[in-house]
């Protein structure tokens, strides 16, 4: 088994889940709360998790995690955490349970409303090391939240905000590819495209961090070379291993900052009138953002082309469109059911999102509107002069 110490301590290999008891003891967690969702409960993964817990069946479980974690769900889980006398958390699932658990870990030790800790509202320095210990166990290969310093949570007023701090990085990550073998093809594709987007956006971020860029390129290599096998052959152990590693690397590297894809997908994911999967949004938006950023990243596009085996003049945007099509992803926001009348508000929110600041090309409200319109219709990107 690989034990990786980078940003946090990571158990990575088939069978890594068996080390959970050791992690609980090392962190001093005697009364954990499990954060999951109803789908994981129905799939039997919570029962499987309990078999390796010292306390077994006596561990309380919160399964009310929505598709996109909300402030209301955080508060409901927090109430259970406190009433059960818990002293730490185990999050199992995709990015939603892990992000929700980060919100509980924060509010269990920090006073006041959740909103005050949001990054864009000056909350980063308010988050201290007192955050409750969290062990994250991903069952999808995409978000990288198990090693990420951010949580995306939709507040009661509908704003989807980022909560960012090195103290929010889970104290342990258990990455067991065995847990991803049953992931359905559509979810495998969507989460895999999330990992690919993380690696591309981080690599293109203008911040100077060569180690992060090297990790991003390695993650991109692994993902593009194995995502189609993972989707078409879900029991392919090598493909599942490589996709989980790609997702992990995406999470390790996006400390460098993301870009316009995430600046748009964050507020879109907070819409109440339609439930939108984060990875699918990223897949649809990525080609249009790549077109928008063309010429703003020095030689980095050439480097990505080389890693993908493309010719110097080939379009990265078209490569992603073709990959999306082969994976059965929707081609436009219209196919996803995104309401067009939300675009003015989404474009404004994108300019305020923390990911916008690290896009390689500054984007205005008008630019974001143009990207949304192109991604909605599938027509070429039209930018104002």
From TrEMBL:
GO molecular function term, any single one: metal ion binding
Cofactor(s) needed for function: Fe cation
Domain of life per record: Bacteria
Domain Alcohol dehydrogenase iron-type/glycerol dehydrogenase GldA: 8-177
Family matches, as Pfam families: ADH_Fe_C, Fe-ADH
Residue span, Fe-containing alcohol dehydrogenase-like C-terminal domain: 188-376
Catalysed reactions, semicolon-separated: a primary alcohol + NAD(+) = an aldehyde + NADH + H(+); a secondary alcohol + NAD(+) = a ketone + NADH + H(+)
Keywords, alphabetical: NAD, Oxidoreductase
Family statement drawn from the similarity comment of this UniProt entry: Belongs to the iron-containing alcohol dehydrogenase family.
Name this protein carries in UniProt: Alcohol dehydrogenase 2
Organism: Microvirga aerilata
